[in-house]
Design brief:
Helix content is 50%, strand content 12%. It is α+β, with helices and mostly antiparallel strands and 311 residues long. The protein is elongated, with a radius of gyration of 25 Å.
């Protein structure tokens, strides 16, 4: 039987190259059967967000070539039958909303304690397929960004567990993969999704550990201020300004520790001025405005913002 399935897959793949086969995306997990009957042998489960190639579509069933996730080893393609429900194609009415809605639900499931296993990966695929299948949809840009954001967070978490994550120099560690974010910037330029994608890329420019030295916060404050200059309408501007202000505030203590007293006053002034800019951002959230005021107050009153702030 295994040999037969491989042969079928080979023949199907060869045939696909000669014509534009109908494709679909699963918005629900489906059982792949050997034959179009629920009493037939179950071959595998097709996960949410997985793409299938339609071979034939009799009433109530779809014969597909599906990509199957494996616990160990690379994904593989096998053919089989699924019930004709929950497969979204480019011609499905409101298909973009259906895939996007399932992606949001999966993302919420991933954030829930005890949530469904691999729900984050499901959401990532569903968001990506929304943008791929419905590129002209009003939600395509956000969908592609959210897919890239999940990928970024998963990769960032994995990288943070490595010993190199604490290296001071960003060049001494493996960077978070940037391709997905750069795709957002390329396909949806001059949008807030491109701005947010660019903000993520800053992670790869940050030190893993300052090691109580001024070099890192000096450089990082400049990186955040450059971001604000290059992306003045980005939703991330308040956060970028706050991050820069925090680093200037930290330099007040670090310069003192390094015996660079002549630089302290300038660091205080830049911390306060940059924090005050946060409140001037149109429609700034109360959270960022309040945090920035707190930071400015601490610097103005000689309360340490970095390290031990207990006198």
């Amino acid at each position: 039987m295994k040999l037969s399935l491989r042969l079928i897959a080979f023949v199907v793949l060869a045939a696909i190259s000669s014509f534009a086969a109908e494709r679909g995306v699963m918005m629900r997990e489906a059982i792949l059967y050997l034959a179009p009957n629920t009493t037939s042998e179950k071959l595998a489960n097709v996960a949410r967000g997985r793409e299938v190639v339609v071979l034939e579509r009799p009433k109530g069933w779809v014969h597909v070539l599906a990509t199957i996730s494996q616990t160990f080893g690379a994904d593989r393609d096998i053919s089989g039958w699924i019930q004709d429900k929950g497969m979204i194609t480019a011609t499905t009415p409101n298909g973009d909303s259906l895939l996007y809605g399932e992606a949001v639900d999966s993302e919420n499931e991933a954030s829930r304690r005890g949530g469904r296993k691999n729900a984050a990966q499901d959401a990532m695929r569903l968001y990506a397929r929304t943008a791929e299948y419905f590129p002209n949809s009003a939600i395509a840009g956000e969908a592609l960004y959210r897919a890239a954001d999940i990928r970024w967070q998963l990769d960032k978490d994995e990288r943070s567990s490595r010993s190199s994550a604490r290296k001071r120099d960003p060049g001494d560690r493996i960077p978070i993969e940037e391709d997905a974010m750069k795709q957002v910037m390329k396909k949806f330029p001059r949008t807030k999704w491109a701005d947010l994608a660019a903000f993520h890329l800053i992670d790869n420019k940050l030190c893993g550990d300052w090691q109580a030295q001024s070099k890192c916060p000096e450089k990082e404050a400049s990186v955040y201020e450059d971001y604000v200059k290059d992306h003045p309408t980005s939703p991330a501007v308040p956060e970028a300004l706050y991050n820069a202000a925090f680093r200037y505030g930290a330099l007040v203590q670090l310069y003192g520790m390094e015996g660079q007293a002549s630089k302290i006053k300038s660091a205080e002034e830049r911390a306060i001025a940059t924090a005050q800019r946060v409140a001037q951002v149109p429609n700034v959230s109360s959270d960022w405005a309040a945090r920035a005021r707190r930071l400015a107050y601490m610097v103005e009153n000689n309360i340490p913002t970095f390290g031990n702030n207990i006198d």
